[in-house]
Amino acid sequence: MIRTVLGDIAPETLGVTDSHDHLFFASRKLPGQELDDAGAAEAELRAFADAGGQALAQWTPMGLNRRAEDLPDLSRSTGVHLVAATGLHQAAHYRPELLPLLLDGLADRFVAELTEGLRRDADPDGPPLPARAGLIKIAGDFHHLDTHAETVFEAAAAAHHATGSAIAVHLEGGTHPLGVLAELHGKHRVPASSIILGHLNRFPDPAPHREAAEAGAWLGLDGPSRANHATDWRLFDLLRALTEAGHADRVLLGGDTTSAAARAASGGGPGIPYLLTGIRARVIRDLGADTADAFFRRNPARAFDVEWRR
Predict the structure, then answer these.
(1) Residue 120, pLDDT above cutoff 90
(2) N6-carboxylysine is carried by which residues (predicted)?
(3) Within a domain: residue 310?
(4) pLDDT over 90, % of the chain
(5) Helix (H) or strand (E) holding 160
């Protein structure tokens, strides 16, 4: 089953999916670019639904303005399935006074949000909300894992083993995918099929992408991105190479809207709908309808499918 903010659903009902995006997000690394407008989030979701979108995975983890209390109403009002994240980002994203609190009992926090309910970011030790998380979001660093990441990876692996949940990994600049696999799969025994490697298009080297696919991991490619526009033009080169190598069944695509400037509803765009109106439309044209169905429907239904253990 797939765990959404409105409850568990059968994988075949997930539908056309944005596998990596953000409706709400706020970070010390992006001052003044907070995603904190519920009306704009609803407008983005409605436009996404109008373009044929049926599901979206929000990768915003604990402590970064998830607005978890608003997600169920957004899902109901737009008809879009929402998969929410527990997890923890790089240390630099957090207020210094908040991070020690979140790190205390971290694996138990992850498990509780996956099985009992998300907590409000303003009250991380408060009562659970009705909505539960459906994935664990964590982060590596540029070409390595720092000590913070190693701590978070260990907690994420423990939570995976307790619940079966997928682990979605922010790769800084798209780097270190095989090192992340070695840490989670080799060291902590998380099945590669439960690991989603995000931002791979930001480091467009097809060799490690193929190796990660051969190991059984999910390959997350996202964009377009104002922050990473220099590699946007390589996206379709990578998708074509993966498809020709027989790995279309490991690819997930997302918009990764992380700032107000990237949101169509608040001005800059191109926003969440462009994943379907631009990227998906070109996938159909260049790689075929069946490949598009794999990227946007069949693969997400498998990647987020979990036999929940609690």
Answers:
(1) yes
(2) 137
(3) no
(4) 90
(5) helix 147-163
Q: Which of 37, 32, 17 is nearest to 263 (CA)?
A: 37
Domain-embedded: residue 157 = yes
Residue 173 within any structural domain of the chain: yes
Residue 121: count other Cβ atoms within 10 Å of its Cβ: 20
Radius of gyration of the chain (CA): 17
The number of beta carbons lying within 10 Å of the beta carbon of residue 289 is: 10
- For 166-186, the DSSP string reads -EEEEPGGG--HHHHHIIIII
pTM above 0.85, yes or no: yes
For residue 12, being part of any structural domain is answered with yes
Domain residues for 186?
A: 2-303
Element (H, E) at 291: helix 289-293
Q: Where is 115: in which H helix or E strand?
A: helix 106-115
Cα–Cα distance, 193 to 272 (Å, whole number) = 26
Report the distance separating Cα 87 and Cα 193, nearest Å.
18
54-103 pLDDT, tens digit each: 999 999 999 999 999 999 999 999 999 999 999 999 999 999 999 999 99
Q: Structural domain tally of the chain?
A: 1
Orientation angle between helical segments 206-215 and 235-244, nearest 10 degrees: 50
Name the helix (H) or strand (E) containing 24: none
Alpha carbon 91 to its chain's center: 18
Q: In the β-sheet with 81-83, what is the strand arrangement from edge to edge?
A: 17-21, 55-58, 81-83
- Nearest-angstrom CA–CA distance, 61 and 258: 12
